[in-house]
Amino acid sequence: MERLLWRILPLLALLVSFVIFFNMQDSYRAEVSPLIKLSGDECSLLPHRHYWISSKRIVTPQGIISGSVEINEGKIVSIVEGYSKQGNSMHEEVIDYGEAVVMPGLIDVHVHLDEPGRTEWEGFVTGTRAAAAGGVTTVVDMPLNNHPTTVSKETLKLKLEAAENEIHVDVGFWGGLIPENALNTSILEGLLSAGVLGVKSFMCPSGINDFPMVTIDHIKEGLPVLAKYRRPLLVHSEIQQDSKNHLELKDNGDPRAYSTYLNTRPPSWEEAAIKELVGVTKDTIIGGPLEGAHVHIVHLSDSSASLDLIKEAKSRGDSISVETCPHYLAFSSEEIPDGDTRFKCSPPIRDAFNKEKLWEAILEGHIDLLSSDHSPTVPELKLLEEGDFLKAWGGISSLQFDLPITWSYGKKYGITLEQLSLLWSKKPAAFAGLESKGAIAVGNHADIVVWHPEVEFDLDDNYPVFLKHPSLSAYMGRRLSGKVLDTFVRGNLVFKDGKHAPAACGVPILAK
Fold first, then answer.
1. Structure pTM?
2. HEC readout, 394-442
3. Residue 385: C-alpha distances to residues 168, 256, 338, 341, 472 (Å)
4. Which terminus of the chain has a lower count of CB atoms within 10 Å, N or C?
5. Alpha helices (H) in 204-351, listed in sequence order
């Protein structure tokens, strides 16, 4: 009996090790679709699964180091300080990037990929290829402007089917909170159970017919369900505050003048919405009746009263966070030419003083993270020829340029590589519940961007732009710093020197 026991003990140990291994493969809240190919020659431009990346500038949670990162089967397995030192594995492939920065891949939690239903606007293939070209290794897709919108488990299924074998980076999904599922929480529970990472709502008209706006009462109905699942509510925080003066401006102002549009959406709209939201978030404190719920303000534009309300709510312990976008940090209303509807978005781009205050809030930590709000459309809906700001589609196309835009415009404010990584990688990962992403750390997915902060380039016809409709991007014609060289997703080299890997091997991310 004793001899038999000693013979089966190694088999038991092997079995336990396999169980532990497969349980650790996705230690964050993700399920990997079995239909998505995770490795193979077509998934990567690099023919190795076990290799090292070396650089004199590697951004880690402990700071910038000179050293090497060991990658095996899509995971980071070791980090060695000391340039050109690779531990005991000198026979493995070593990619030496010299002075180039090795940083965690960007995580963009606010992207409209528009599929299914509006692939002429964007799409999984084009959107995720753009992401890879810009060093963005994970995106979280918004529940609109696709058709139908993602507001039930059935419509989420359509999303997943459309994404099958079409995504070049990892993709998570937000659902939508609308009056129908707010008042019928079984629909909302079904959507959350199906795997959305959280839900998004609009407190003003969204511009999409099958994604109606909610009131604070709808939000109050949905938050207890979100508390149960511990998922965030993302809110487009504007409430229309039409006054006689604003209506007169809308009716009588020159629609080609940006100032006309700007005056139709004043900061008071954002302030009104956020004031209602922070009246609810007081119950999300630890021990409160809504503990587990979290409210996230998307694309904050107003850096005055609206931001002050958020800061006050945070100071009392509310579970609330806020993001802003590169276009609010790069542009100011004074510089937007009349008729150039590429700059139209909502909330609108405000004045230069407001922009300065947003940068100040970022560097002081009051704004939690950055996102693109990449919202493309077809050229005819932007009305570039008419230049009518009041009628043109609102949305800025910028996914590919998240990194160079933030770096180029942030340098003068003193933004560091560590802050850049915090705003675009670590904090977005924590917000979306992606526990194995967002940092170059042992055990994490090998999601990495390699780039040259010092290299400048012009966004013109000679630059390889992977946006679907590049003519619509407000950044075309700009000179930027920070050129992306290579992008790795789960260890696969998916983008290098302007080329993408042959196969789309990104993974859909679903909450468990």
1. 0.91
2. CCECCHHHHHHHHHHHHHHHCCCHHHHHHHHHHHHHHHHCCCCCCCCCC
3. 34, 10, 12, 9, 12
4. N
5. 216-229, 244-252, 258-264, 267-281, 305-315, 326-330
